Every structure is written in structure tokens, then in C-alpha cells.
Amino acid sequence: MIPREILKKIRQIELRTNRLVTETLAGQYHSVFKGQGMNFDEVREYQPGDDVRAIDWNVTARMNHPFIKKFVEERELTVMLVVDLSGSGLFGSREQSKRELAAEIASVLAFSAIRNNDKVGLLLFTDDVEKFIPPRKGRGHVLRVIREVLYFEPKRRGTDLVQALEFMGQVLPHKAIVVVISDFISPDGSVLTPPTQTALRVANRRHDVVAVHVTDRYELELPALGRLILEDAETGEIVELNSAHAASRDAFALRQEKQYAEVARQLRSSGIDAIQLRTDEPYAAALGRFFEAREKRRLRG
After folding, report:
1. Statement to judge: residues 123 and 107 lie in one domain
2. Which of 13, 125, 190, 197 could form a disulfide with 164 if both were Cys (CB 3.0 to 4.6 A apart)?
3. Contact indicator for 39, 72 with CB cutoff of 8 Å
4. Do 82 and 46 contact (CB within 8 A), yes or no?
């Protein structure tokens, strides 16, 4: 039996995110992701008005007049949610932790997917692959996905996105929409490592990878609380700092802002579409803007 308070929490997320999907994001999801996967259908003779980029040059050369490849849109897509459950995800300076924000984003995308008759799968990772749920359809399946993101208890606390992406490559035989939800904090507190960038590029060549970068206000700025003793949630390292001085707080904010921007830059350089979300800010408008920008890029391409 699932405890009543857990069911209540899941139900609250379902109601909140389903309303957002119904009223705002359903059409955007379809226009942004549908049509990304195309299956080869047939070769036919070129007709005036056809896109010259679709010409099959091998067949054209053999037949001495132009032929084009015809593709049909995949009727069904797979959305794979790859969610970081490392120790840093438990941090949250207000009512919502990064892990709770990850659960809401996963819920929005999962309900958008099943409204379009797509499948949804889940991969939870730390510095090991903690859990894999194969892609399926249906409301009950999505509610299970939300429950696991919220309440699954990982065995480890570190972060290894490379291993997670390699595992995903083994279990997903066909192209999928892969949404990586993480704070992208490396064990040493640095930005994306070269192996992580390489793994993202490799995954994006086969799949359509989207990064959701979640963070908290107090990871970007220090509150003026005097001397603080902090424990790293992933490594257990103890850090002491003094937040009473404005100069110290400013230096911390500047360093964190640069790191935050560097993660965004590295994701772009890896060819990954990314959205940055904070636990203290509403995410609906940011998601909408992300979908709009992504659709414009697709139309331009």
C-alpha cells in the first residue's frame, strides 16, 4: 500500500501539471516533438515543387531522371526521462526542492506525451543506474513515473551522467526524445566534464536530447546569515564560509553565475537544446518560451 500522504502529493502534482498541459502546452509539445522522427516510406519520381533536399541521388543517377525519398512521420514517439537523483537534488531553499521540481517537469512532459499517444520511460541515476522503467503508455504508468522521481531512495549519492547515457543507449533501440533533468553539478563542483560533453553529443546523434537544468536560488547567491557550515550532499565534504560580508556574497554570486552560464554554453556547444529552471520561479512560462524558441529553430532549419 502506498501511504496516503504520498498519494496526495502525487495527485496534487497531477492536477497542477495536467491543467498546464491541457491549457497551454499540449499543442506546443506536438509541434515541437512530432515530426522529429521520420520513417522512410518509398522512392518516387520528382515532381515540380518537391523539396530538392529530398532527392535520392543514387536512384537518380541509375534512372537518369530525378527521384526523391518519401518519408512519413512516426505515429508514435518515445519520451525517455533521464533524472538525476544525486544528493544535491535534495537541496531547496524554499518550499520546493530541486527533486520536487524535477518531478513536476517530468509530470508535464509525461502527460503531454500520453495525450499524443506516445510512450514514456524513466531512467533514474546517481553515479550508478538506480532504476529503469521501460517506456509504456497510460495514466497509471505516468503516475508511477512521478512517484518514482519523488520517492525512490537511491543507494548512492554521486553523479555520473556518462554511465546513465551509455545505459540508455543500450536499452533504447530506436530514436527517442531524451530529456535529461539534472542540476549538472559534477562531484568536484565543476561544470560539465569533457567525457560528459562527449556522451551528450553521442546520445544526441542518435536521439533528440533535451537538457533541463534545475537549480536553486541559494546555489546562485548566499543569504546574509553570518558564518555557515555546509555539507556537500554528494561527497560529505564540510565547507565553512562567512556570508556576513557583502563582498564575499558578491564574489560567490559572480562565480556561480559564471558557472551557470558555462553549463549553458557547454550544452549549446554539444548541440543540446536546454532550458534552465529555478525552484523559486514559476516554470510554466519558461517552458512555453522554450517550446516556442525550439519550434522557431526547427522551422528555420
Report:
1. yes
2. 125
3. yes
4. no
Look-up: residue for cell 529553430? 297
- With bands split at pLDDT 50, 70 and 90, how would you rate the model's confidence at 296? confident
What pLDDT is attached to residue 84?
Answer: 93
Query: Following DSSP, what letter does each residue of 69-85 receive, concatenated?
Result: EEEEE-S--EEEEEEE-
Number of domains in the chain: 2
Do 100 and 233 sit in the same domain of this protein?
yes
Going from the C-alpha of 244 to that of each of 84, 224, 232, the distances in angstroms are 33, 5, 21
Is the same domain home to 53 and 182?
Answer: no
C-beta neighbour count of 104 within 10 angstroms: 21
DSSP 149: H
Assigned C-alpha cell, 25: 502546452
Considering the domain architecture, whether residues 116 and 259 belong to the same structural domain is answered as yes
Contact residues for 191 (Cβ-Cβ < 8 A; gap 6+)? 184, 259, 262, 263, 266
Domain that holds residue 269: 4-33+76-300
Mean of the per-residue pLDDT values of the chain:
83
Q: What is the pTM of this model?
A: 0.80
Of 73, 97, 121, the residue at which a domain comes to its end is 73
Q: What are 121-157's pLDDT values in tens digits?
A: 999 999 999 999 999 999 999 999 999 998 999 998 8
Chain centroid offset of residue 11 CA? 22
Tell me the CATH number at 97. Answer: 3.40.50.410
Question: What is the mean pLDDT of the segment spanning 7-35?
Answer: 79
d(CA 287, CA 298) in angstroms, rounded, equals 17
